[in-house]
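Fold tokens
===========
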Amino acid sequence: NLGNTYPNPFNPTTEINYSLPMDGNISLNAYNIQGQQVADIFNGFQFQGNHRIVWDASQFTSGIYFIKLVSDHHSATTQTILMK
């Protein structure tokens, strides 16, 4: 389960909350409005349960970004807005 980012809109950091029903490898990436991957926020193994990651987007321009979580068995996407 991928929750909403907080705060949203944000500048320059936002918190990404998600929960995993089982242990496994995940990737958490950010994409711009054109669908291009712009950031690899996390890629690796995590245990089941609730997780929180802060994304620092200070190097990116203002705009809409999509955060995508992919695990072995599921994927989910949420939208966030960077306002500088």
About this structure: The chain has a mean pLDDT of 96. The first strand starts at residue 2 and ends at 6. The beta strands are 2-6, 13-20, 24-31, 37-46, 49-56, 63-71, 75-82.
